[in-house]
Design a protein that fits this description.
The complex is a heterodimer of chains A (334) and B (333).
Chain A: E1 6-16, E2 21-32, E3 37-41, H1 50-55, E4 63-71, E5 74-75, H2 81-87, E6 92-95, H3 99-102, H4 109-121, H5 125-138, H6 144-147, H7 157-170, E7 175-179, H8 187-204, E8 207-212, H9 215-221, E9 224-229, E10 232-238, H10 239-244, H11 249-256, H12 296-299, E11 307-310, E12 313-315, H13 318-322, H14 325-333
Parallel strand pairs in A: 3-8, 3-9, 6-7, 7-8
Antiparallel strand pairs in A: 1-2, 1-4, 4-5, 9-10, 10-12, 11-12
Helix pairs in contact in A: 4-5, 4-7, 5-7, 7-8
Chain B: E1 7-19, E2 28-41, E3 46-50, H1 57-65, E4 72-77, E5 80-81, H2 88-96, E6 97-100, H3 104-107, H4 114-124, H5 130-143, H6 160-172, E7 178-182, H7 190-207, E8 210-215, H8 218-224, E9 227-232, E10 235-240, H9 242-247, H10 252-259, H11 299-303, E11 309-310, E12 316-317, H12 326-332
Parallel strand pairs in B: 3-8, 3-9, 6-7, 7-8
Antiparallel strand pairs in B: 1-2, 1-4, 4-5, 9-10, 10-12, 11-12
Helix pairs in contact in B: 4-5, 4-6, 5-6, 6-7
The chains are: A alpha/beta (334), B alpha/beta (333).
């Protein structure tokens, strides 16, 4: 069988708080094929960001990362700092929510772009500066030549995020991990950045991991979606199935809680309660205390694992698998 | 609704003097944060103010409450002008108009139990006996859905959604008739946002409080507002009922704003993508401020600023080409 671009198996992340160990990620499995776009959805504390920071060795000494992360079949968890640095930015690039804090405020845009080109592509300074300009044009920055000699504070937030995308593309990565790339931006600028990301995928064929709390953004960019809750994946399916036929009560809850821009104006169905803190997880299913369908006998006892419902569709909910046919139907109608 | 307005804002302007870049002795320029904004809010009604960062929506909120003085224009609240002079008359008015900010943790005192700080407005205005104040506080904690056990908790012991409930309870303590909410749910998680939206609507029904609801999120504004005003660069460019505006936005900026909202239901829909960034409020373009980004702009738009004029029923639009659809104009071209 052909090896996928990324294969993550049983990834766990623990944080040493001094007094105790807090598990923030409880076993995460995922495969990403070449060129595939995977959306990771979840609320704060769901583990959607630390999964990737942990996989790329960016979490620092307080975190214990275990499990397996393979890139083209090669294990990268536990690689030395030098080998890891050769992967980050080159094979796998990452962009974050706040572009201005990822750019160096005292260096010109051009110098920062050239730096990554020299580092990742081994270009000479002269050819790198021509390439830097071409990269800025590719992310649709007007007057690219002039922008190269400007500082990050002279550019708008949307423009800086384009620079970050350009910089991420500098290493010609196989996978771009975009963590809430438009959350700090205005709606009309967000629309521009989404267009740029789509265009870049079409052009380069790179894989994309899009991490967001916004289901709308994930719906727009991803081929496949993973919904996370309290440090675990709870449902994964192709994008159309996640939104048209969600099965996990949390996924359904999230969609029902979402205000819409059109359609009938109904009272929102809020999910009661709040996301549990990582050190105070309930014993059974982490969503059970907030779940309208929860069954004390089943849900409070054991943590459900991801099981297939249909092809490419899996969920971690005991009710989906144990429910009698009529109970299943009520789940479908709910 | 034909009752007299609770608050009436007319031709509100606020400008700031700013240094242009260049040096210590460079000339100052005028930043127009709010540039002639007028609206009314009736008792028990919600006006949603939407726009992107820098459009002047938060400055408008501060002007309405008299937290900063206006450069020109007038705010009349419950029949009396609002003067930003911190004098007695203003302090009396401020009992009746309260504010809720985006970040509940920043709005709360970290060293005081939440019950005590929710009660503070009553303490400050010396309302009732101590027992009465506590009863009022407990009643409002019930109303906003906070367990009574949380009264003695500190802000950091509560979740984000619970903190915002404390802020709401405190804001409602003096029975205000107007609550100005500046991005009240933007800092909350998706599943918590719906709780607070529903709570705001329930409280309005129970207490008859009016909201000036400021948000960048059109989906949320649609759910809470009776009327909506869209702002761009310090001006209202379109106002009217949310359903009418969301279904058929008449101003090209509203069209772009609404089409830019990502939604799982509207996957793969064609979207209007505006070019460029909003211009700096220091250097607002001549004519219509939106013309450099507008796909429909004509010569007239470049020279003559459009007034906010009636457009259909209960709607106002400031555009020379109001009602022309960007999508169909593109299709025809």
């Amino acid at each position: 069988m052909r090896e996928p671009l990324v294969r993550i198996n049983g990834l766990t992340i623990d944080f040493d708080t001094g007094q105790s160990n807090v598990r923030a990620l409880h076993g995460f499995d995922l495969q990403i094929e070449k060129g595939e776009a995977v959306g990771i959805v979840g609320e704060s504390g769901s583990g959607k960001s630390i999964t990737w920071l942990g996989a790329l060795g960016l979490l620092g000494p307080r975190a214990r990362v275990a499990g397996s992360v393979r890139l083209d079949g090669r294990e990268i968890l536990g690689l030395g700092e030098r080998e890891m640095a050769a992967i980050r930015g080159k094979r796998v690039a990452m962009i974050f929510q706040d572009p201005t804090s990822s750019l160096n405020p005292v260096h010109r845009i051009g110098r920062q772009l050239v730096e990554s080109l020299v580092l990742h592509r081994g270009m000479s300074a002269r050819s790198a500066s021509a390439e830097a300009r071409r990269l800025l044009e590719r992310v649709q920055i007007a007057a690219a030549a002039q922008r190269l000699s400007e500082y990050p504070h002279e550019l708008s937030g949307g423009m800086n995020q384009r620079v970050m995308i350009a910089m991420a593309l500098a290493g010609e990565p196989d996978l771009l991990i975009a963590d809430e790339p438009t959350t700090a931006l205005d709606v009309t600028i967000q629309a521009q950045i989404l267009e740029v990301l789509k265009e870049m995928r079409r052009e380069t064929g790179m894989g994309l991991v899009i991490i967001s709390h916004d289901l709308g953004i994930v719906a727009e960019l991803a081929d496949r979606v993973v919904v996370m809750y309290a440090g675990r994946p709870v449902e994964t399916a192709p994008v159309s199935r996640i939104f048209d036929a969600p099965r996990h009560p949390y996924t359904r809850g999230l969609l029902a809680a979402l205000p819409e821009i059109d359609g009938a104006l109904e009272r929102l169905v809020a999910i009661p309660g709040q996301v549990p803190e990582p050190h105070k997880l309930p014993p059974g299913c982490p969503f059970a205390p907030r779940c309208a369908q929860a069954n004390a006998n089943v849900c409070d006892e054991t943590v459900p694992t991801m099981r297939a419902i249909a092809q490419d569709h899996a969920a971690a909910c005991a009710l989906i698998h144990t429910a009698k046919p009529e109970a299943l139907r009520s789940l479908e109608l709910a | 609704m034909t009752s007299a307005p609770l608050i009436s804002v007319s031709e509100l302007r606020r400008t700031y003097k700013v240094k242009t870049t260049g040096g210590w002795f460079s000339p100052t320029a005028e930043l127009k944060a709010v540039d002639g904004v007028s609206f009314d809010i009736r008792p028990g009604e919600t006006l949603g103010l939407v726009g992107e960062s820098g459009c002047g929506k938060s400055t408008t909120a501060k002007l309405v409450l008299g937290l900063i003085p206006a450069t020109s224009g007038k705010v009349v609240f419950e029949g009396k002008p609002v003067a930003a002079d911190s004098k007695r008359a203003w302090r009396e008015q401020r009992r009746r108009m309260q504010m809720v900010y985006q970040d509940p943790l920043g709005a709360l005192d970290r060293r005081l139990p939440v019950g005590a700080q929710a009660m503070e407005p009553l303490d400050i205005f010396g309302e009732g006996t101590k027992a009465e104040r506590r009863d009022r506080m407990l009643a409002l904690f019930d109303a906003v859905g906070l367990p009574r056990t949380s009264v003695d908790r500190y802000p950091h012991e509560l979740s984000g959604g619970q903190r915002q409930r404390v802020v709401l309870a405190r804001a409602l303590m003096l029975r205000p008739s107007l609550l100005v909410c500046d991005e009240p749910i933007s800092a909350l998680d998706v599943s918590i946002q719906a709780q607070v939206i529903n709570l705001l609507k329930d409280l309005q029904e129970q207490l008859g409080v009016a909201y000036l609801f400021i948000s960048h999120d059109l989906k949320v504004v649609r759910h809470v507002s009776h009327r909506v005003a869209v702002m761009y660069l310090g001006r209202i460019v379109e106002s009217g009922r949310p359903e009418a505006i969301m279904r058929a936005p008449a101003h090209p900026y509203s069209q772009a704003l609404i089409s830019a909202v990502p939604s799982p239901r509207a996957r793969g829909k064609e979207r209007i993508v505006l070019e460029g960034d909003p211009p700096s409020p220091v250097d607002i373009p001549k004519g219509c401020a939106f013309h450099p980004r507008c796909p429909l702009a004509t010569d007239r738009c470049r020279s003559e600023a459009p007034e906010l004029r009636p457009f259909g029923e209960q709607r106002h639009v400031a555009c020379h080409r109001a009602g022309v659809s960007i999508t169909s104009a593109r299709g025809a071209a």
